[in-house]
Structures are given as structure tokens and as C-alpha cells.
Amino acid sequence: MRRLFHLLKSFASIAILASVGCDKRNSPLAAVAPENSGGSARATEAPKQTAVYSYEVVNAFPHDAKAFTQGLLFRNGVLFESTGLNGQSTLRKVDLKTGKVLKHIEVPSEYFAEGLAVFGGKLFQLTWKHGKGFVYDLESFQLEREFTYQGEGWGLTADDQSLILSDGTDHIRFIEPSSFKVKRTINVTNCGQPVAHLNELEYVEGEILANVWGTDYVVRINPLTGTVTGIVDFRNLLPASDRNGTDVLNGIAYDHLEKRLFVTGKWWPKIFEVRLKARQ
Q1: What's the CATH code, domain 2-6+51-278?
Q2: Rounded distance, CA 68 to CA 265, Å?
Q3: In whole angstroms, what is the distance from residue 8 CA to residue 222 CA?
Q4: How far is CA 95 from the centre of its chain?
Q5: 3-class secondary-structure state, position 11
Q6: 117 and 157 in contact (C-beta within 8 Å)?
Q7: Cβ atoms within 10 Å, residue 39
Q8: Residues contacting residue 184 through CB under 8 Å, at least 6 positions apart
Q9: CA distance 266 to 214
Q10: How many other C-beta atoms lie within 10 A of the C-beta of residue 213?
Q11: What's the rounded Cα separation, in Å, for the pair 171 and 199?
Q12: How many Å apart are CA 186 and CA 199, to the nearest integer?
């Protein structure tokens, strides 16, 4: 399974410490480094301190605890979700308030589905290790075409011009949605150090939010420079009483009309509407 595979591969590179900032001794991101960071851009002048955010839970909604959430987005009053694992991967349309799956299709069993984005009335879904993605009609879920990319597929989102893809490293690619050609790449850094294991992505009000896989942290990224401008500490979001059988935090969706932010995780029984708060 992906979880065990990456835990073994990256155990030494993920350190979760109590406090956050640019002090390497105290940053939960300090030890999160890519396997191959050669050639990664470095900030010429690191900020003295990265802003840290906590959260306030505004609402909690039911979520299918059998959904291994890989991609999440909110459009037209409903959630769209990509779930993973070979033989269990799906594309879903979900009612936020009830958690009921309104529509779904199964992804062929050889594929491990990953990130999900919407662009131009189409849904774009990644797969983990096959270098292949799928394009569906937003309403009917009819498969319209496939596309390819280099490396692994982890997270996917979109701005008004590009698909935005993460691959588990510190790199984020901006891709032309018609040709699927890479337009540009940013290297994500916090205090001048690379931040790897970038997973689920969401484009929110001009910045990229990204789960850091294996942690309870979401980073806020400047899409022009790759600089981490803030770190959101989501520890204890899911109560201990709900954690039995769950996996890691993963799943960010944003309601652009009502300005609502939603967060969930793999096999989590709840989706949370949250409001970010600057830590005092």
C-alpha cells in the first residue's frame, strides 16, 4: 500500500516538532526534504519567520469513512472527490451536508487515483504511478480523453490558466490544460529550504495550499516564487474519538462563492469547515 511504502521510504525525512518557524531546530518542515533536491532553487534571503496559523472549526459534516481521499474540490454547491487505492479508486460527487454520494464511477483497478481539479467545465484526475490522467465531463462523468505526465501524480488544482500538479517532491508544475505541456515549474521552499512530500493542492485566492504528506500541516505557497508564506497547524482537528481506522490529513476544498475552506483526511468520518487564525 502507498502508506506503508512511503512511510518506509521517507521515515527519516519527516520530523514533526511542536513549534513552527524558520528556526531549523523548531520547524516541523525542517527535515521534510526531497530525495533528489539537486538543482532546486534557493531563496537568496530567507524570511526571519514564517507566519503560523491555527484554525477554528466552523462546521463539521459527515464523510464516507471508506473514502481514501486523494483529491477534493467544491463546485456548484457540491463536493467532487477522487479516492485512491488499487481496486477502490473512484470519482465522486458528494452532498456536503449529508455526505451522501450523489454520483460515482469506478476507476479501472490497475490505477491508484490521486489529485483532482476542475478546469473549463472538465474534471481532471491523476493516477499515482502510471503517469496517466483522465478528463471527464463535469456533469455526466463521461470519460472524454486521457493525458500523460512525467513522474508520479499526487495533487492537482487549477488557477484560471493552468493545471497545477504536485508529485511528492518539492516541485510544483504548471501545465497547459489542452496540450498538457509543462509551462513552468516552481520549487517550494520554507526559509530557503526545500519542502517535499507536497500532496493534495487547492488554489485559494491567489495562493496554493498544499498538504505536507505524513504531517498535520498545510503550507501556503506563493505560486510565483514557490516561497512558503504560511504554515497551518491542523493538529487535533480530528478528535481522538474519531481516529480509529483513519489515515493522514489529506483533502482541501474551497468554496469560491461563499469563501469557505474545507479540510478532511483519508478514511476520515468527517469533513471540517475551518477558519484560519493567526497564532498569537
Answers
A1: 2.130.10.10
A2: 8
A3: 30
A4: 20
A5: helix
A6: yes
A7: 6
A8: 173, 174
A9: 11
A10: 25
A11: 11
A12: 15
- Residues 134 and 156: beta-carbon distance below 8 Å: no
Domain spans of the chain, in order of start: 2-6+51-278
Can you count the helices (H) and strands (E) in the chain? 1, 22
CA distance 184 to 186: 7
**Which amino acid makes up residue 14?**
I
Q: What is the pLDDT of residues 141-166, one digit of tens each?
A: 999 999 999 999 999 999 999 999 99
Alpha-carbon span 128 to 152, nearest angstrom = 5
C-alpha cell, 102: 450523489
Position 276, amino acid? L
DSSP labels, 108-161: PTT--EEEEEEETTEEEEEESSS-EEEEEETTT--EEEEEE-SS----EEE-SS
Distance CA 115, CA 147 (A): 14
Cell numbers found for residue 219: 503550507
CA 72 – CA 81 distance, rounded (Å): 5
What confidence tens digit (pLDDT) does each residue in 75-119 have?
Answer: 999 999 999 999 999 999 999 999 999 999 999 999 999 999 999
Antiparallel, parallel or unpaired: β 51-62 and 228-233: parallel
Give per-residue burial for 218-256: e unless 16+ CB within 10 Å, then b: bbbbebeebbbebbbbbeebbeeeeeeeeebbbbbbbbe
